[in-house]
Amino acid sequence: MKLQAARGDSLGDLEPTDANELTTALNNAIAAEDYALATTLRDRLMQLSGGDAGPPADWQNLDIPTWLADRAEHIGYRFPTEVQRRAAKVICRGADAIIQSATGSGKTLAFIIPLLARLKYPPDAYPEDFRGPQLVIVVPTRELGVQTVMLIYQLFGGSVNAGIPGDPTNMFSYTGPRGIRVRGVLDKEEVLRGKNNGWLFASHVVVGTPQCLAELAVSPNAFPLTACLKALAVDEVDAYPKEQKESLEFVLAQACVEREQLPRPQIVLVGATLPPEQVLDHYQQQGWLKDAVTLRVGCQGQVPAGLQHRYMVVDEPRKLILMCRQLRLDVEQQGEDAAPARVMVFVASEEAARAAAMPLRSGLWAEHKVSVLLPHGEEPIQALHAFRDNKATFLLATPSAARGLDLPAVSHVYNMDPPEDSVAYLHRAGRAGRIGSPVKGIVTTLVTQEQLPELLSIAKELKLNMAELPQPPADTLEDLEEGNIDTAKKNLDDLYNLL
Q: pTM for the complete prediction?
């Protein structure tokens, strides 16, 4: 049933059970001063959450400093979401917290803004005497680390779109403290720079992977990572594979147990899904968590309700060409007035991404500029910036990019193989349907006949209505008969490039 505004207007195809979509619509209604519509949306969100979902006037009502609240609004986060409201109340009073909320619901800002709000500006020491960061954020992948660094950089007054007149995110609209820094320690080169040449000097916030942070904190030339630490956050807390867990536990122990005569830092764990209870109990027993408040918003393991889920059974060698044909068909069916398609395609590995990049660039008929998101080198920064700034509309990614990345207006997600489990599917699908997205998302998975039972098992576990798609035809002979020589030639080129 479609929701009705208080004055009786239809809300069109708005999904009445999708909290992300409803929150986006609520923020837009308030910005447009359509308060009747906002009231209806607020009431529906209250029903979904079982509590008070009415938004406060702004971030300042959550005890966020004026400069930080203003900055959040300027860079596009005008009103706090439900998880942001609830998390701020817990974090701002200094409690340890375990936060679980659905993909796309605003989890990253939910812990970053209140943690930044609790830190002292300026720091206790002068910058030249500042021994280490006040806040450390642990991330599982370099891609997520880059995004987190850029978000905090913007909150600290940095401009990522310099030179655009009137851009509300530019540095001239910033009113907060000056001279505070955020740094990422996300590869070996950055570890060496941090240990040997003062690159982390006077850094207020450090973002890093567990291995890099652990290496940074040990001899020789150990960096005093925890000397001034007031808070530590672990994002995507269930995402750390076995080879990262030892380093993560080392960092937690350094922060919470092995600092002599220093107050224990605040610890915040965050994820769309959480690790098993025995893992969290282990953290408590080790002293890494103390009287932690567990905050759950929505159901764990729930895919945003507004997404459409499909699958296509294909032979392995034909996956690329049929994915391209289906994407063209999707765009045609959207109509000329629809927003341009923005596509994420997940492949199994870095090698598969490199192998698919050139054929896709040739086979998309120049309708999309392809950016490839790889876990190593400079590509993550370049690829994320290109897609974020709409210089690329097609992002080819590996499974590591499924966690946490907040990329604007993703309309289509394609899986070239079924994800390894339901959690992986949830995170890939969650790149679409995020709060603030103006488009609904379509998730399509290409499987062989042998892979189909695996995918259907995932769909059953997540309670998804997953429709089967027929294979789209090339229609080359029909194009020739109708005189569409260029289209027929492109279809033949596809066969050559993509098979």
A: 0.79
